[in-house]
Amino acid sequence: MSGNGETKPRPASIRDVARLASVSHQTVSRVLNDHPSIREETRQRVLDAIRTLDYRPNLAARALASSRTNLLGILSATVGEYGTTSAIVAIEQAAREHGYSISTLNLADSTPEAIGEAVRLLQHEQVDGIIVLAPQLRVYNVIGGLGLSIPVVSLQTSAGGSAERVAEDQVDGARLAVEHLLALGHTDVLHLAGPQDWIEAESRMRGYLDAMSAADLSAIPPIRGDWTADFGYFAGRELAARRDFTAVFAANDLMAIGLMHGFRDAGVAVPAEMSVIGFDDVPVARHVWPTLSTVRIDFTELGRRAVTHLLAAIDGSAPPAFGLLHPELIARDSTRRYATHR
Amino acid sequence: MSGNGETKPRPASIRDVARLASVSHQTVSRVLNDHPSIREETRQRVLDAIRTLDYRPNLAARALASSRTNLLGILSATVGEYGTTSAIVAIEQAAREHGYSISTLNLADSTPEAIGEAVRLLQHEQVDGIIVLAPQLRVYNVIGGLGLSIPVVSLQTSAGGSAERVAEDQVDGARLAVEHLLALGHTDVLHLAGPQDWIEAESRMRGYLDAMSAADLSAIPPIRGDWTADFGYFAGRELAARRDFTAVFAANDLMAIGLMHGFRDAGVAVPAEMSVIGFDDVPVARHVWPTLSTVRIDFTELGRRAVTHLLAAIDGSAPPAFGLLHPELIARDSTRRYATHR
DNA sequence: GTCGATAATGTGAACGTGCACATTCGAAAC
DNA sequence: GTTTCGAATGTGCACGTTCACATTATCGAC
Which nucleotide is nearest to B24 (CA to C1')? Predict the structure, then answer.
């Protein structure tokens, strides 16, 4: 407000800093990128000048000169899903801690064309790497066929590499859920699965199949859902007529909650006549009626790891070896001993 | 893979295009920014060259030269909230339709320092404008005091301007909710509010107070919650002892769902002894038991409008006049006539 | 045919940084 | 005191655009 005669409030550039510190602009650049051969005294002088002028590097210029943007792209198709959202928040935070920014791109539909277009767009923004949260198999096929020059990491799985273990995690989690039902005495367990193409859906189904066959039980052909509570509801109403199972493992909490609603409307009591377990442990899971048994995955940690991986790939260094994440079974009221049934 | 002798796979630049089209690089630039004075024939020649070379403008170079990034910053503190998430998706989509990209920044805590730092960071990325989804009053105080040179738009409200109407919307919605309860014969309605500092919390409370006083009823001192289902649960357990109200209007669905759980655990039957209505219409609201009456706000449209506003502000043009958005009352099973009580 | 005005195009210099390549400095070795 | 070599710093250009300012076509009016 107090107008002093400055006509050009143009922000300070690296050359202004250089002038003030009586060094060349290149020396300033070296200080900024902590080049080893800088005398401590010079470095201090430069840093002082930077502080005095409130200098901030121009990211566009840096990107132009170095063709690195310090930008990470997030390609997502599942926003709204609780897990995805938590992971995105974690990714964003982790990225910022490493000096990267995030550009998110939500896929409205996941046709190969749309995916290709989305990747092209991110590439156009010259992101240094991409994290994919659109865990559909076809997405990988498309991306794989694109011959990208920048690294791509997936939260769910990737061809080889330790990200694969993350997927393994979900298999484990699903196994936990089913084993919980079996431990309660159930032998006829139905799986309400996710859509065919989804990696997470496949992992969870694999866990279901593994657990069943490990217990020498025959699996029931799963129902394919679409992750939504609405689908769960309709499934519940339809399935109420069938009596070839006494427990359901739903591939996510939303479908489980809808399912319980459907059963309720159809006159099937949960858990008295039917046990239901979900997956994710969304915040409302503990507050619905009956409170929902489920499996908790640490999406936040998953997101963090994805970033670490991607940054390693960008730097060309070896990805760090992570220990496995252990999903946790949360037993609540929606599951009950089979013995108490009927 | 088929190695033809190209040693420099460097992407085509504007000068390459110019050469191929036998024009100057400036003419190409004019075509790209659709300058009026370009002969149609020339334009076609340039466009052909662009297609032939698969030329894509270098965004960093453009940003450097024009000091405009076509980047929008989203400053958010409420990720995970259903409404916020839907709005973000809509914002991202709308922004892309206008050729803008999105850089999201999630606030872990909303201390003035953190907010200032976040804005500084976005400014450092040279975003052309910021959309704020951290609807706390203090956020505006901080941002207002920063003297920013780029436009800032809020999804919730802003000092003057038509965004204010958006807030009005939420007042309307809250009024709808309370009027619904009053129409059912309730006279003693409690409000489970959001945190003090939140604009949305204030709007919804204002709607509550308006509706009560319009009906010549005295309001009960509201309870301050934190938006979470967990808080709702504890509130329900505590409030069960009180009998000076027969209905509760919760400031969001999550608290409402928790509240019903708390009442249930404390032996208060919803809706038989107590009516509960929420706000937001989250996807599970229709599947919990009892299904939750609530008010639906069109967050998607809200997000779209925020983008339109911001882009207008960036271009310096007048913001378009929007009609008011009308929140919709969704009556379900958690609310019931007072007459049927006791 | 000349003039002027506007349309259409061209020229050179920014923009702020990093890179490749000098150059200078300083101290140890002889 | 010269030589040598690495550490410390400087010089000029390139990155791919846009901007400000020429310059050249085009066309109607006289």
Answer: C10
